[in-house]
Design brief:
It contains eleven helices and nine strands. With about 325 residues, it is α+β, with helices and mostly antiparallel strands.
Amino acid sequence: MQFADLPLVASPISVVDQQVIEEGIQHCATDLKLSDIRLIRQSMNAVYKVTTSRGPKIMRVSRPTNTTLPAIEFANYLRRNGFEVPAPISQVPFRHDEIEITLWEFIEPHSEQFVNWSTIGSFVQRLHDINPEEVAKFYPLPKAASFPWWNFDLLLSELGPTLNSNDCDILLERWERLRPYFKTAQDIKVKPVGDRPVLCHGDIHPGNVIVSRTTGQPILLDWDLLSVAPREWDHAALLTWATRWGGQASTYADFALGYGSDFSSNDLAQALAELRLLSATLMRWRASLSTPSARVEAENRMKWWRQDPTAPMWQAV
């Protein structure tokens, strides 16, 4: 299997000129007869709630590496195989300049109902059973460890001079300790049998899960980081969710119960969890260099690496 060099969406929508985004939305709204366009959130994509003749829908504005068509095809593939994910409304992306706009089913969230993380764990275990080579026929799958924010040598080289020298030494030392585990995640080959790498969602945490008001079932969203990695990759984010992000202590245990395996004592999973924290720290520090409001959170994250007993829980951004 040939791995893709980049994920489907490799850069945040914020790199696109706002006028281009607004023009694209206006043209798409005219073409598809959309109204009441309201921004929900913006990160890698800009996500809007819109009104159509058939009720509310979700509009995603992306800057794809090539095209977002594989995202539509993958959602259809999952739904055909019994996975509950939002249905694509548009089967072809709307292209404007460097952006693409897609329309998706709107799932009314049930804000008062807790996520059943055991159900999500079972969902992810089934996802990991899919042969990546089957999906790679229509979806460009990269290695999860190939994403730009996992290039720690480059990030530390770039950001090191902007850090306090002691802080820089701390992060460099942690990176060197974790490097062998990163290499394990990076040096993967798709094998027909045995302990093969798996198809990973890539970013499983509470911010990417909602509970459907209609069905009461949890829905895993935001598949932009779909990739191939050791199965520990999809456990990593939740392993530190309670200790670093202030989440429910039972979240990972419930997820592991549904998945059928608990990786809380797994060396690779723990290393990948710490690597995620290292990446999150460096990316917030980079943001703070151009956005002063990001500095407080960047400093708070550095406190934890210094083993400062006053280090607060981290805040997701």
